[in-house]
Amino acid sequence: MAQRSSGIRGARVGSGPLGEPERGDLAPRTRVSFWCGKGHHSQLSFAIEAEIPHSWDCPKCGLPAGRDRDDAPVAEGHAPYMTHMGYVRQRRSQEEGEILLNEALARLRGTI
């Protein structure tokens, strides 16, 4: 069986040494701490020139996290999960639902 020969044998696109001379120097960084309402602590790295946000989503629980440990931001209220029937009941009363159901059944039975 013939073997293939390649000039870049054993190499992949993007492979090679990944030292700073090839990529360039990293921007100077600063570490910032954030705390969520559940007490989770996360440290993020930002470029020194970047504007540091006042809040950040906690990577552990998803709640908003702030830079002050004692005054964590409060999550905005979310609507509870509702089924399709829950949304229907918001729009119609029980009596209106009964009327619509009886009309639909009458149409199916052919009495209307």
UniProtKB/TrEMBL annotation:
Gene3D superfamilies: RNA polymerase-binding protein A. Pfam families: RbpA. Zn(2+) binds at C36, H40, C58, C61. InterPro entries: RbpA_sf, RNApol-bd_RbpA, Rubredoxin_Fe_BS. Bind 1 Zn(2+) per subunit. The keyword Cytoplasm does not apply. One of its GO terms (biological process) is positive regulation of DNA-templated transcription. It comes from the Bacteria. Its cofactor is Zn(2+). Keywords: Metal-binding, Transcription, Transcription regulation, Zinc. Residues 1-26 are annotated as: Disordered. The keyword Mitochondrion does not apply. One of its GO terms (molecular function) is zinc ion binding. Coiled coil: none annotated. Binds to RNA polymerase (RNAP), stimulating transcription from principal, but not alternative sigma factor promoters. HAMAP family: RbpA. Belongs to the RNA polymerase-binding protein RbpA family. Forms a complex with the RNAP catalytic core and with free principal sigma factors. This is RNA polymerase-binding protein RbpA. It comes from Streptacidiphilus pinicola.
